[in-house]
């Protein structure tokens, strides 16, 4: 049975370091990010690692993995979320997320799901939606 939940997450920490390329132009960066989730997912201090490919000073795409440990709809456990998204010229961030197969533990074992968020630059808190199913 599929369920949909909503909530918000807040960037608690964003630590970005250049990897290659020129400031203001095409370049690659790595970001270590910590998020706090509220709502359908309750988790503090998640760990997320992003690789970002910028095509200008502020636009580009990213991929990353986030380890989330907490509760989902009141069930305790952890899972890994694969994220793919883009930084838009207007400062917005669009992201699609998918649960990494076989990554869930505890009461979340068998979790599958997809989600998304749209964040606005300069705002630390953003809404998310997440559609999921639990096998077994």
Walk me through what this model shows.
β3 and β4 (60-72) form a beta hairpin. The protein is built from no helices and eight strands. With 136 residues, the chain is mostly beta strands. It has strands spanning 3-21, 27-39, 41-54, 60-72, 75-87, 92-99, 111-120, 125-134. It has an eight-stranded antiparallel β-barrel.
Secondary structure layout:
Blueprint: E1 3-21, E2 27-39, E3 41-54, E4 60-72, E5 75-87, E6 92-99, E7 111-120, E8 125-134
Antiparallel strand pairs: 1-2, 1-8, 2-3, 3-4, 4-5, 5-6, 6-7, 7-8
Number of helical segments? 0
Strand order in the largest sheet: 1-2-3-4-5-6-7-8
Unreliable stretches, pLDDT < 50, 5 or more residues?
none
Major beta-sheet overview: 8 strands, antiparallel, barrel
